[in-house]
Amino acid sequence: MGILNPSALPLLTLLGILVLIYLRERWRKRIEVPSLLLWRAVKEDSLRVRRFLPDLLFFAQALLLLLLIGGLLHPYRPLVVTTLQGNRQILVFDVSASMQAREGRTRRFELALDQAKKVVQALGPLDEAMLISVSTKPQLVSGFTSDHRHLLHLLETLTPVDTGTNLGLGIELALAQRDREGRQAQIHVFTDLPQSALNLPATQLKDLVYHRVGRSDDNLAIAALRLYQNPFQHHSQARAYVLVRNYAYRTKSGQLLISLNDRQIFRRDFTLPAREVTSFSVKGFEGAGKLVAQLNTEDALDVDNQARAWVTERRQRRLVLVSPVQALHEELERVSRAIPGLLLTTMTPEAFTPSALDAQDIVLFHQFVPGAVVPANSLYVFPPPDNPLFPVLSEATDLTILDWREAHDILHNLHYVEAIPLKRARILALPSWAQVLISSRTQDGEVPLALTGEKDGHRVVCLAFDLGKGHLTNSDNLTLLLLFLNTLRWLLPPDPTVPVIVPTGETFFLPAGIAPDSIQATLPGGQTRSIEAGAVEIDQVGEYRIKGSHYNAVLYANLFDEAESDIGRREDGSSFSTSVAATPPPQELRHTVPQEFGRLLYYGAAGLLLLEWLYALWRYRRAGAP
Amino acid sequence: MGISDSALLRQLDRLRMRVRTARGLRPGETPIPRTSQAWGIEFESYKEYTPGDDFRYLDWHALGRLDQLVVKTFTAEREIPYHLFLDTSASMRVPAIDQKFAFATTLIEALSYIVLANNDTLRIIALTAPEKGRLPFFATPAFRHHARFFRIPPFLAALTPAGKTYLRESIRAYLNQTKEPGVAIVVSDFLVEPSQYEEPLLLLRARGYEVKALHVLGAAELSPTRLFRRGKLYDVEEHGERWITLTQAHLRQYEAALRDHLATLQQFCHRHHILYARVSTEQSPIQVITDVLTRAGLLAFR
């Protein structure tokens, strides 16, 4: 027995109110008699009379009240229900790139598919199954269903993708779904990965029915394609490196072809011993454009035999310096002369007008902050007090750099950040849109020395210390010069004509402000896909073309995943299961359900009311009807 | 209530009032036993002739046989003046379930019907509380014919029981205004101290009235458990309150007090030759009139 609505319990105080009403009525009510003459002989008994002595009507009313409150409480009694329920199975299916590996005349994917179909076909009529596909992210293809034909159809629609796998996450999802609704499900995993690669505890692994497929290790792959070219370099100065790895446990031969804009510029035949790696370097490109590396070899996996990169055309980058310090003007002019492609314009704050920023890539404000945020990527150095963008709290001297964000692009390859000379620095209050890049510490706490952030769609960097007085070109302050050049590089706006290089398995997001409704993505295979929520899942190797009325972009997707290319995985002793055990018969489930009987109490209250009414009618007719 | 029921009226036609001593001055239709007169219908006796007697009633046969002058005398028949006193104090309306006042007015109506049917004189006097500038009673004129009966129900219907019981003051005030005695029937619950009813009843006796006390008791007065089990009793006349729990012991105490009260009243009436009849609202009016009042000697069948 229990109640479903305890919030009605306070209504029981109405019983107390009923008692009070009765007492009040008792105290208030007078019984008229012709005379007290005869009652003088009877002893007065005020205490006993005033005591609460319920009568039949009170009991009837209290019962009526209790029945109504009881109904509102929604009382229930537990009812044991026995149902026949089938077993539950969860199929976790690996659709990563390595599942495309050939095993004789078929692929690992089809082998696993056959195993999964056998599991589904062995299910009893009441059995239910759930299907989860796993690549870099798990995806619930179907919830628990007993429609086995539909499940087989869903299996047929699965296709392998050119990404890595996060099978552990998929199994975690299956484990989370396993104990739903008090029914335990059995988890089947279909993959070519060994169990040791899952990084799951042994207690969880032992509950899995593991269907591992694939024995071949025959794979030669492009492990990496790197193009080294900074924004100020000419395409002839760019250098490409191709890393080729033999994942097979035997010597393999192959041929590497590299083409620039579909024109072959490199061809090399090679032989690689088992599990060895070699690299090829290409330089002296005659032009800018698409660079494709293609590996011609007989192996089990094709998807990692190609890679793409882009040789960039150098173009003029415009930098505006606004500073009251003439020495800095001269110093930056010397720096700009040493950087090909960098066009410097200098001006004093007094000469600065917003129109001076037209067609400029980067603006450098030194000891000056304009009244409004400028519509360009900008670098602020040693901002003056009372500026509108970076609230200056105070000034400090001889600070020491204590912390910095090493992973940030500005600090890339910068090994001696603490060597940056700091004579004077402003103590800035950190704006809400900014993050600390380099920081020091005073008695009042952490002090930001360099800030990065994005404001109104433009990148902003602020250095709280001064660059002036010959620091940039002094050979003792090479770290400061590298920091400055890295900052300029980070601030350079991207070239929209240059393709974006993306590893498969990642998500490409449209820039802010681009409506995804009018944009379509053309996949490497030629299929088109509408873009949902402004994001494109990159799951195929090749060239993606994103087209819209106001936005165009090209993506080059490469698979450089050692875990996927190393299809042999001999280091593990996992057994290869091919037989499917018969599923146990449906089980009887006994569970309790609350059977509410509040409505019966309402009926009881109505019946009691009816009885009272009939009794009153009977008394009325008996007593008095004229 | 009321006597509009034809069955009750037929019963009333069979009844007459029983009178022992009262008589009026006017000739009427009520024979007065052991009282003779020189004229009449029903022969009663002889008396020696005295000068002035009517010669027409000389018994010539007796003169021839006995040589004595004797004249016949007849049973006297007189018109009896009836004075029906109705207690209209507040105690007559409670307990409400008893409907004592309605019961009493029904009895008054029935008695009035019988009196008027016998061609006697009737006045109904409603005894009320004394108020300044007003007599402590309402009285009808003297009705003499049965055709006047229909003026009685409206008079009774206009009465509302209220106030304290003032039997003494009201009856005394009435007697001061009335010269001709007759039969006085006092209809009341007599729920007052004995001194309150003894004095007016004795006063009526002293003024030559043949007094009859009609004691109306409510069923709830006889059996108070019908009214309550416990509670605060309220005296509608004296406005006193008393918390009572009706246990068996208390009930016995009440019943003893009631018995004492009734016995005192009854013994007083017997001692002073006052006819006493006790009626209860438990009984039906027809039962009271045809059975209780005839056995008590107030009424007799023709």
Task: Tell me about this structure.
The complex is a heterodimer of chains A (626) and B (302). With 626 residues, chain A is α+β, with helices and mostly antiparallel strands. Helices cover 22% and strands 34% of the residues of chain A. Chain A folds into five domains: 2-79 and 596-623, no CATH class; 87-216 and 568-585, von Willebrand factor, type A domain (Rossmann fold), CATH 3.40.50.410; 220-314, Immunoglobulin-like (Sandwich), CATH 2.60.40.10; 317-491, Class I glutamine amidotransferase (GATase) domain (Rossmann fold, 3-Layer(aba) Sandwich); 500-558, no CATH class. Chain A is built from eleven helices and 35 strands. In chain A, the strands form nine sheets. In chain A, strands 19-18-20-21-27-26-25-23 form an eight-stranded mixed beta sheet, covered by helices on one side. A five-stranded mixed beta sheet of chain A has the order 8-7-4-9-10, sandwiched between helices. Chain A has a five-stranded mixed beta sheet with strand order 28-34-33-30-31, with no helix packed on it. In chain A, a hairpin with a 2-residue loop joins strand 26 (445-455) and strand 27. In chain A, helix 1 (13-28) runs antiparallel to helix 3, helix 3 (56-72) packs antiparallel against helix 11 and helix 4 packs antiparallel against helix 5 (148-157). The longest helix of chain B has 24 residues, at 248-271. In chain B, helix 5 (167-175) packs parallel to helix 6. In chain B, the strands form four sheets. In chain B, strands 7-6-5-8-9-12 form a six-stranded mixed beta sheet, with helices on both faces. A three-stranded antiparallel beta sheet of chain B has the order 2-4-3, covered by helices on one side. The A-B interface holds A 26-27, 29-46, 48-50, 53, 623 and B 90-92, 94-97, 100, 189, 191-193, 218, 221, 227-228, 230-238, 240-245, 250, 253-254, 256-258, 261. Strand 2 of chain A pairs parallel with strand 10 (230-235) of chain B, so a sheet runs across the interface.
